[in-house]
Amino acid sequence: MAVVENIGREEIRLSEATAGDYFALLKPRVMSLVVFTAIVGLVAAPGAMNPFIAIIAIVAIAVGAGASGALNMWYDADIDHVMSRTSKRPVPLGRVLPGEALAFGLVLSALSVLTLGVLVNWLSATLLAFTIFFYAVIYTMWLKRSTPQNIVIGGAAGAIPPVIGWAAATGTVSLESVILFLVIFLWTPPHFWALALFKAGDYGRAGIPMMPNVAGELSTRRQMFVYALILAPLAVLPAVLGYVSWGYGIAATVLGAGFVWKTWAVLAMSSEDKVMKPAKQLFAYSIVYLFLIFTAYLLDVVAWRLLAPVGA
Amino acid sequence: MDDNLVTMSPAQKKAQRSRNIAIGVALAVLVVLFYVATIVKFGPSILDRPL
User: Fold this and answer.
1) How far off is chain A from B51, nearest CA to CA, in Å?
2) How far is A66 from chain B (nearest CA, A)?
3) What is the pLDDT of residues A130-184, one digit of tens each?
4) pLDDT at residue A15 above 80?
């Protein structure tokens, strides 16, 4: 009667994936960080932007970040399956097929980039497209499984959102937004390696060459400390250069000192330590650090604007 | 005749309904988004037309 008669019953697969499963493909927790840092970049940029266009820009950036998460889950289903942290994701659970995650990621990538380009500007859209490509292809498909520098270089993808936010507002890339980029970029290795230290077994089983598995724990802890030493003063730079106040400068100094202190505790950790409390504490602190640094930056910029005389 | 039809389990029906609602909401949001963005892009000149 119909064309479908020749299809074997076993080929018919009805999905049990809910909207929530698809939402999980977007990595909502990573997305929240992307949204927050992009907002800071957008608000900190000079000039007035139509608030509605600003909201569209943030939504497009968020969806683009989510799309790269979906592409990552499509490609990494095999290793996500063997790691405790990721085994409950929709693709390893079998709720969403890899092909469905791929299609979802590709459609959202195209939609978010085109929306940003058409309604905001093409520089920010190009940066968003590059970020999705960098995260999905350069990081996920290539670096993640081949080099212990994977998250160092791949961290660039996670660090770009404030630059995209700034570009959405101004149509330019400037030193101020590049410094915000560098803060996240230098923050990523100590943040991720703290996790990799106490999840080394997980990464080892999945065959991912994380730094502790390849170069050893001591070398990783030393490198983390070096990154912390560069990050702490760099985060104070906006105040030194004078485009934000020392209110932010003092906050960044105190938070940075805390970061160096927590990383030092990880460096001083005994090699026999299997519980790795300092590493877990650094991981938790690093999230708070990034959130507070960007909050302080945002508050400083907003306060400055409200206090400044009109027309100045 | 019924043999040729695929019967959905309650879980599958529920999941499909949830996906349909999400797609519907997403499409509605896109329509509103592009409509309002168009108005915003026009700015005050949207009223500047022969009546």
Assistant:
1) 28
2) 15
3) 999 999 999 999 999 999 999 999 999 999 999 999 999 999 999 999 999 999 9
4) yes
Which of A18, A59, A119 lies at the smallest CB-CB distance from B19?
A: A18
Q: Which of B40, B18, B28, B44 is nearest to A18 (CA)?
A: B18
Q: For B24, which residue in chain A has the nearest alpha carbon?
A: A19
Contact B12 A16 (CB under 8 A): yes
pLDDT tens-digit readout, A48-63: 899 999 999 999 999 9
Q: Which residues, 6 or more positions from A86, have their beta carbon under 8 angstroms from its beta carbon?
A: A76, A79, A80, A92
In this predicted complex, what is the ipTM?
0.85
Cβ–Cβ < 8 Å for A43, B45: no
3-state secondary structure A164-191: HHHHHHHCCCCHHHHHHHHHHHHHHHHH
Residues of B whose CB is below 8 A from A53: 37, 40
Prediction pTM value: 0.91
Cβ pair A15:B41 closer than 8 A: no
Cα gap A229→A208, rounded to integer Å: 27
